[in-house]
Amino acid sequence: MSFKIYTKTGDLGETGLFGGRRLSKSHLRIDAYGTVDELNSHLGLVRDLQHREEVREFMHRIQSQLFSIGSILASDPEKQLPIPELTEADIEVIEQEMDHMDEELPDLKNFILPGGHPTVSYCHIARCVCRRAERLVVALAGTERVPAIVIKYLNRLSDYLFILARWTAKELEAPEVIWKNS
What we know:
The protein is mainly alpha-helical. It has one domain: Up-down Bundle (Hypothetical Protein Ta1238, Chain: A). The protein is built from 5 helices and 4 strands; from the N terminus they run ββαααβααβ. The chain has helices spanning 28-49, 53-73, 88-102, 118-141, 148-171, and strands at residues 14-16, 22-24, 112-113, 177-178. A hairpin with a 5-residue loop joins strand 1 and strand 2.
């Protein structure tokens, strides 16, 4: 028996949460987890472009955790459902990775413009999508129950992606372009 990807249940502009509740596809909750999914796709590209295996493995870990966040956000907050959890340890690992990369980088004394190499640019695009996801989750948390750790994780992840962009530029010997007010 084969599985079909289309269900036709969303043809009228609604989708279902884990737990059965139906929402408009324009609902803030759907926008939030859809943006997390978009971020995950961008991270897949960033991962594929990295030349170091340990970075690719870490990015794979982050992508898995983003699936957990998507599961949390796609679940009806009024029901107790078996969904993956995010922990403070997950955030601490991101912080450790940032500290490790940051040790190799020169101090940042100016704003830098995104770019210098396509891989660096993709890191910055992922960072911006991460910030958008964070803003949407914060907005959602203002109206519905959202675990605070989700917001904290996305905030830390955007910082990680900034450091990753700088570290990748260094690894690729790409210039960091300093912003100058014209």
